[in-house]
Amino acid sequence: MSILFDITSRQAKLLDFLSKTEEYLPAKQYADYLNVSERTIFNDLDKLEIFCKKYNLVIDKKQNQGIKLIGDTSSSNGFIQKVITNHKAKERDALSSLERQILIAKWLLINSQTVTYQSLSLDLYISSSSIIKDINRIRSFMDEELQLVSNAKGTRVNGNEIAIQRTIKRFAYYLIEKELNNNSLSTFAHILEPLFDKKIIKAVYDAVIEFLSVMENSISEQYIKSLFISILILTERSYRGFHLTKLPEIQLEGAEYLTNYPLAIEMCSKISSELQFEFTELEHHFLSNQLFAHRIQVKINNKQVEKLISEDIKDMIRGVSRAIEIDLKEDDRLFDSLIYHVFPMIYRLKSAINVYNPLLNEIKNNYGVLFQIIWYSMEKLEKKYDIKLTDDDVAFITIHFQVAIERKNQMSQILVVCQSGLVTSDLIIHRIKNLLPSNIQFRLIAKPLLKSEDLSKVDFIISSVQLEEQTCPVVYVSPLVRDSDLKKIYAYYLKYSSKNRKQEDVVLTPHLISKYINSRYMFINEEVKSKEDCLNKMIQRLEEDQIVKSSFKQSVYERERLGNTIVQGWAAIPHAMSTMANETKISIMTTKQPINWNNETYVSFVILLAVAEEDLNQVRCLLTHLYKIIINSDRLESGQSFKSMTTPEDLIAILLCKDKIQ
């Protein structure tokens, strides 16, 4: 790799100083200028000498006279001058890794430029090692249909337009999730300004806002935000001349998604007239499909939709009902909500459109067993429609089932208070109603009326203003209700509405443990270096004993690619499709040192599930118990029993010791 890539900021400043100096100066003067030792100066000069030779420059050192740069710094294709020019732009020195990643993503993905590591080092004024890390971070958002390719001309992305736009959307959500205050559509637009052209953001934002103002039915804000980002990416790429050449291959017989085509034409017309360019006919169809996938429909024959997937939904409900031993088959509201959710979801996943669920981790942590059961129960749907479910989608469906379970119990009551009792309270309810279970009864009340209110049947209060001491819990939120506020409300719901829920007393017998957990598939204090080492070792043992099919390993890794299997930030529960297991076994590994499970999280406790279809009902009890261990991780981590485990028998003893995990 060229030494140009590895010039540090200090060495660039030294080169700048040398280029301006017309006489020989002693090393001490250079050292004083850069506030380093003379030895450091000579080390830097040795490195710069190799670089300068490439461009016919000489660092001349004369005894008793000093050091001087000899040669024309404006020659050599301007590379030396570019180093110095970039050095003068001192603000570039302050770029964070995220800011660099935004610029690189914009060049590679938005503009489809070919870049070189040399040009990136010069433009961003950083070393090659930092460039490599930034490139790898951007690469992590790509799937198998998009690759980074390099040749003599440089590095560029190679893949179809749909794959490029899909990657841009993942990167856009990555930027949004970095910001705590990302609750409103206008805030989304502002966060994305470094990545997209501001005039394009404004044109798309105005078109979406105008469209929403004439919609009769309320639309989930998560779908609105996802739609906004998709239209923004389509517009930015089309405006720059990068057009779609094909649509995703989707076969949903009877789907009336083209009813949105006139609306798509209208939106495209508004945006294109503002920006003075034209969408292609294919892009009109693509936007029409996006509107349908995000549940935005002028009119749809619900009876026809129901006919298309009703048996699939009924089969799903039957499967989950059997697994959780709660009969939900007669719950019409559950059936209707799943019909409404699943049909567009199928189309959306066929189109490779993902929707972000801000409560994903909370749902996985608090309803982990139900979450896993739904994954398994939806395998038939995945196969039939050739789709791959994401964690976000399973979490949304988990909410529907959890709501149905809780409908069998008393309805929760939550009081929403603000100064006026009107506008702000309405905003709070609008923000949370699509994310919390629908069995909650919200009641609006102005602060002055709270004194005379009977709170005996209220689970807790949500307030945007400070209240006097109350007899029931109060969760305070911002009037704008940020995502962090949603998580607080959700935590209060779990804690203070628990009296309305059926508490299942899990009884774990030695027989159940011995049936599914065997010491042969337990690995204690393993010295593994990576996630791959961990999974391969566990899977190999299962394959040796023909517990799983040969395709089990591929299914596990496919599941890992689709979503995050981490729970509580320190444990992982990878699994494959149930059809990949010949029989049910649960493999467990504890690691001597935490291993990197994804880009940012390390785990030390791994539960690999190999669950056969016929055993899903029986392992529910065991899964519930294992989740309790993970959820109570703080107590376990601080207890001697967990840290001192040296054998599989030690872990089994913890599993059987019920008082340790309650």
Automatic annotation (TrEMBL):
Q: Sorted alphabetically, which SUPFAM superfamilies does this protein's record hold?
A: Phoshotransferase/anion transport protein, PTS system IIB component-like, PTS-regulatory domain, PRD, Winged helix' DNA-binding domain
What's the source species for this entry? Cytobacillus praedii
Phosphoprotein: is it a keyword of this entry? no
- The PTS EIIB type-2 domain extends over 412-501
Please identify the protein, giving its name as recorded: Transcription antiterminator
- Asked if Transcription regulation is a keyword of the record, the answer is yes
GO MF terms listed in the record are:
protein-N(PI)-phosphohistidine-sugar phosphotransferase activity
Residues in PRD domain copies = 195-301, 304-411
Q: Gene3D superfamilies, alphabetically?
A: 3.40.50.2300, Mannitol-specific EII, Chain A (3.40.930.10), PRD domain (1.10.1790.10), Winged helix-like DNA-binding domain superfamily/Winged helix DNA-binding domain (1.10.10.10)
InterPro entries associated with the record: BglG_antiterminators, HTH_11, PRD, PRD_sf, PTrfase/Anion_transptr, PTS_EIIA_type-2_dom, PTS_EIIB-like_sf, PTS_EIIB_2
The UniProt entry's GO biological process terms, in alphabetical order, are: phosphoenolpyruvate-dependent sugar phosphotransferase system; regulation of DNA-templated transcription
What CDD domains does this protein map onto? PTS_IIB_bgl_like (cd05568)
Q: Which PROSITE patterns match?
A: PRD_2, PTS_EIIA_TYPE_2, PTS_EIIB_TYPE_2
List each copy of the PTS EIIA type-2 domain by range.
515-658
Q: Which UniProt keywords are listed? A: Repeat, Transcription, Transcription regulation, Transferase
Q: Which Pfam families match?
A: HTH_11, PRD, PTS_EIIA_2
